[in-house]
């Protein structure tokens, strides 16, 4: 993934590390976090991420966090898609559900069907959990790390149409 990002964004700095503990000598005016944050599924790890972000921001720096879901916005869903070309193809079906609304994770089940150049079909299944913290919990944790936060609507891109909710936070 890092190599792909370097090709797509050659003018940006790229670092490989654990977002809970990475140490970079440079300080930034702004930090953006999107998809990766949903894999931080417990509060202790989320606190570590926010502390790490804070340590890498300049005074009055800001962060933009765009998690896939908040507790208040999650709805079970399924999506499907894929592609076909002359020699091969891929189809997928993803089902995202909340089997325990009292916890802070939802479950993602994905089935992939892959067709190779000889027409052979291979089926693979994947399962993972992603975080769904409440807006109030995000704001509470950010406040404890010295941030003033605001919840805002944001349009991401054509691949993820619609309006999403993001967290904009400024270091106090």
Q: How would you sum up the global shape?
A: globular
CATH class category label of the largest domain = Alpha Beta
Count of discrete domains: 2
- The CATH homologous superfamily of the largest domain is named Vaccinia Virus protein VP39
CATH-scheme architecture of the largest domain: 3-Layer(aba) Sandwich
The helix/strand class is alpha+beta
Span from first to last CA? Answer: 33 Å
| Largest beta sheet: strand ordering | 1-2-8-7
Please outline the major beta sheet: 4 strands, mixed
Give the radius of gyration. Answer: 19 Å
Tally of DSSP helical segments: 3
Describe the model.
With 172 residues, the chain is of the alpha+beta class. It folds into two domains: 84 residues, Vaccinia Virus protein VP39 (Rossmann fold); 55 residues, S-adenosyl-L-methionine-dependent methyltransferases (N-terminal domain of TfIIb). It contains three helices and eight strands, in the order αβαβββββαββ. It has a four-stranded mixed β-sheet. Strand 3 and strand 4 form a beta hairpin. The chain is globular.
Keywords:
about 170 residues, four-stranded antiparallel sheet, Rossmann fold, N-terminal domain of TfIIb, four-stranded mixed sheet, 3 helices
Q: Layout of SSEs?
A:
Layout: H1 2-8, E1 28-33, H2 43-55, E2 57-65, E3 77-84, E4 89-97, E5 105-115, E6 121-131, H3 135-144, E7 147-157, E8 160-171
Parallel strand pairs: 1-2
Antiparallel strand pairs: 2-8, 3-4, 4-5, 5-6, 7-8
How would you sum up this structure in a few lines?
By secondary structure, this protein is an alpha+beta fold. It is 17% helix and 45% strand.
């Amino acid at each position: 993934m890092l190599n792909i990002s370097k090709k797509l964004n050659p003018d940006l700095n790229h670092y490989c590390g654990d977002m809970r503990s990475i140490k970079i000598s440079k300080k930034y005016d702004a930090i953006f976090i999107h998809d990766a944050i949903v894999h931080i599924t417990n509060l202790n790890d989320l606190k570590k991420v926010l502390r790490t972000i804070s340590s890498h921001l300049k005074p009055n720096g800001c962060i933009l966090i765009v998690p896939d879901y908040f507790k208040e916005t999650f709805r079970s869903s399924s999506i499907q898609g894929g592609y076909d070309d002359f020699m091969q193809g891929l189809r997928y079906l993803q089902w995202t559900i909340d089997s325990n609304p009292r916890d802070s994770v939802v479950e993602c089940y994905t089935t992939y069907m892959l067709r190779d150049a000889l027409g052979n079909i291979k089926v693979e299944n994947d399962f993972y959990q992603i975080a769904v913290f409440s807006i109030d919990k995000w704001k509470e944790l950010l406040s404890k790390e010295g941030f003033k936060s605001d919840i805002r609507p944001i349009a991401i891109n054509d691949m993820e149409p619609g309006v999403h909710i993001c967290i904009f936070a400024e270091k106090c």
